[in-house]
Write a structure and sequence with these properties.
This protein has 308 residues and is an alpha+beta fold. The chain is built from eight helices and twelve strands. Helix 1 links the parallel strand 3 and strand 4.
């Protein structure tokens, strides 16, 4: 435990704002289950300009969550709220803060919005209360909250992840590129996607990708496109054929790469320039009126915590 140090209290800030970026899985390989029953993965994360806005205000006598842009649901099921509870427990002080979430990242689409909100809340509270936690303590809290939360605490917007996604190697950021995110329908439950994958693999040996990911090669988008893979696509596309049709439609616009992120339902296409993205956006929007399309870009730096 890390009690808040009294000498810091006099210079605490009242409120702070953090942008909580979405993420893409540029590569997602499921290696199998460990002895505890959790699936081990190999993944390449990149953060996006598409982001939620998280504002945290210190004090107020209670822990309050205000969500805008989606149905709020019970606070106890929200990862940002859970992050705040974990933070206050760790620093051993009364939980008093107001967390305002402005949701822009589609929920349950494999874009990591909830995990990013949790990481942003941890960063904001740590700043507001005088940084009582060491980086390794914040990371430990993040890992307990969810497998993607650790990435959003990473110093780089590009990182390799292993195990349950918490073992990270931050990589030098690569050139920002235009991205078109497509959300063709409701989110897909992660537990369902893993169950479908396990059912398909039942009785068969699980093979690794057979590739040795060399960090020095992950500085070139053509190389990243060559390595792009998502093990969940075959099983998710079997259950939701319209997602496979959407991927084919996006591939017809000739992007650098097109892939599903996480366990879906979001797909993304990376283009060489903004003109290509705009033409693709116009064409796809015309032919798929029921799909949400979000133009954005990859980040070259993680958002900083800002005072308000």
């Amino acid at each position: 435990m890390s009690a808040l140090r009294p000498e810091r209290v006099g210079r605490l800030r009242e409120a702070t704002v953090v942008r909580a970026p979405a993420k893409l899985n540029l590569r997602l390989v499921v290696l199998g289950r460990d002895e505890s029953g959790y699936h081990q993965i190999e993944t390449l994360f990149v953060a996006l300009g598409l982001s939620d806005r998280v504002r945290v205000e210190r004090g107020g006598g209670a822990l309050v969550l205000d969500v805008q842009g989606q149905e709020p649901g019970p606070p106890g099921e929200n990862l940002a709220y859970q992050a705040a509870v974990a933070f206050f427990r760790e620093v051993e002080i009364e939980a008093e803060a107001t967390i305002e979430l402005e949701k822009r990242i589609p929920v349950g689409a494999g874009l990591g919005g909830g995990s990013s909100d949790a990481a942003a809340t941890l960063r904001a509270l740590d700043r507001l209360y005088g940084e009582p936690l060491r980086p390794e303590q914040l990371l430990r809290l993040a890992v307990k909250l969810g497998s993607d939360v650790a990435f959003f605490l990473s110093p780089s917007p590009l990182a390799l992840g292993w195990g349950r996604g918490a073992r990270l190697l931050a990589l030098p950021p690569v050139q920002s590129v235009p991205v078109l995110v497509a959300v063709p329908g409701p989110g897909i439950a992660t537990t369902n996607a893993y169950r479908w994958l396990d059912d398909r693999r039942a009785g068969a040996a699980v093979h690794s990708s057979g590739l040795l990911l060399q960090p020095r090669l992950l500085q070139d988008w053509d190389e990243i496109a060559r390595l792009a893979l998502n093990d969940f696509e075959p099983v998710v596309f079997t259950e939701y054929p319209h997602l496979e049709r959407m991927k084919r439609g996006m591939a017809d616009t000739e992007p650098r790469l097109v892939l599903m992120t996480g366990t879906g339902s979001a797909l993304f296409a990376i283009y060489r320039n903004e003109d290509e993205l705009e033409r693709a956006h116009a064409s796809l929007s015309h032919h798929s009126p029921g799909t949400i399309f979000i133009p954005t870009q990859t980040l070259t730096a993680m958002p900083e915590v800002g005072a308000e």
